[in-house]
Amino acid sequence: MSKQRVVVGMSGGVDSSVAALLLKQQGYDVIGLFMKNWEEDDTDEYCSSRQDLIDAASVADIIGIPLEAVNFSIEYKERVFSQFLAEYKAGRTPNPDVLCNAEIKFKAFLDHATSLGAEHIATGHYAQVREINGVFQLLKGEDGTKDQSYFLYRLNQAQLAGTLFPIGHLYKRDVRKIARDHSLPNSAKKDSTGICFIGERPFREFLNRYLPHEPGEIQTPEGAPVGKHIGLMYYTIGQRQGLGIGGTRDGDGEPWFVVDKNMTTNTLVVVQGHDHPALFRSTLSAADLTWISGEVPHCNWVYAAKIRYRQPDAPCFIAHLGSGKCDIEFAQPQWAVTPGQSVVVYESKVCLGGGIIAG
After folding, report:
1. Which band of pLDDT confidence, cut at 50, 70 and 90, is reported for residue 2?
2. Same domain, 91 and 227
3. Of 161, 103, 118, 135, the residue nearest 23 (C-alpha)
4. Is 47 a catalytic residue?
5. Which of 100, 316, 326, 351 is catalytic?
6. What value does the mean pLDDT take over residues 325-354?
7. Does 61 lie in the same domain as 79?
8. In total, how many domains does the chain have?
């Protein structure tokens, strides 16, 4: 009987490396796939893709699996980066990792893996899949501090059916220990924190190359001017650092926070104090909804939601508006609700889906 073939996305990081190792140990016919998705200014100064490929190749050699490098830069630019720029231009703050997973890792990658004769794909995400009565569920990763289900909420049944998350049941410390025990060269490699596939570039400088910046006024909600901004696209709701207006006004010492962006007047609106009432919202509207099971959740209070990664689950009520939109009401007001970010809904440890925050 032939082994089932699985193609595992290998980034050069420790998580995907251990995922490939575990699959090999479980008896799969494993092929590693290194994805290059960004070519512009791909230099040693910012992008470590060359080193990442070396790391992935070294791991593949130790594990004893073939590694293929594939270039998805055209798909990335068309499907992810263009939308990324459009969102910033419209004054919203998109999440490139959500877009990247939906359009590259679980579309372009999945299609390529199928062409290689794979029955499954696998990644190093901290998440889990469970099948109940023919329905595939996306579960949180066992390590609550590393759970990445938030970034995967746009996956559908067909994608989940063919996906393995080999390290989803592990804690990060255990993943690093497995890597050390098998002498993997990247066992201590730090986690990537840059824009998905683009790397850790200076963000303002990077964005300025693609979008024209229009300076304008920084004002209080009452319209009092307090400074100048360099372009609305560089700021996000709740931002404190980099406003250039200091932390005091009238001697009270409270720091300033972004509370709104008025695209019509090109005005950045700020308030003083982390707990200013204007920074809190009890309801939000979401659009471009995706429900993993294909079934729309019922309207009740058994759900919880996150409006950003690494946020504690917040009890909520879902009100359906139809046409791919809904309102979400929270039991407690949420801080810095940000248009363009994702709101992701959970029922206990099951990720149900979510949408893009519209307002």
Report:
1. low
2. no
3. 118
4. no
5. 100
6. 95
7. yes
8. 3
Is residue 316 part of the annotated active site? The answer reads no
Domain that holds residue 301: 280-357
**What is the pairing mode between strands 67-71 and 342-347?**
unpaired
CATH of the domain at 31: 3.40.50.620
Residue-averaged pLDDT of the chain: 89
Tell me the C-alpha distance between 144 and 126, whole Å. Answer: 9
Question: Residue 230 in contact with residue 205, Cβ under 8 Å?
Answer: no
Q: Hey, what are 236's tokens? A: 């996000």
One domain for residues 198 and 240: no
pLDDT of 44 > 60? The answer is no
With H, G, I as helix, E, B as strand and everything else as coil, classify residue 250.
coil
Active-site entry in 47, 196, 326, 351: 196
Choose one of 203, 222, 242: the last residue of a domain: 203
Cβ(175)–Cβ(14) under 8 Å? yes
Do the beta carbons of residue 174 and residue 181 sit within 8 Å?
no
Q: What is the pTM of this model?
A: 0.90
Domain boundary among 184, 203, 222: 203
| Average pLDDT value for residue range 317-332 | 86
CA distances from 76 to 71, 86, 271 (A): 9, 14, 37
Alpha carbon 253 to its chain's center: 34
Same domain, 21 and 103: yes
**Are residues 34 and 102 located together in one domain of the fold?**
yes
Q: Which of 60-69, 175-184, 207-216, 247-256 has the lowest mean pLDDT?
A: 247-256
- One domain for residues 167 and 72: yes
Does residue 42 surpass a pLDDT of 80? no
Instruction: Write the pLDDT tens digit of every residue in 232-289.
Output: 988 999 999 989 886 554 445 789 999 999 999 999 999 999 999 999 999 999 999 9
b/e for 34-55, b at 16 or more Cβ within 10 A?
bbbbbeeebeeebbbbeebbeb
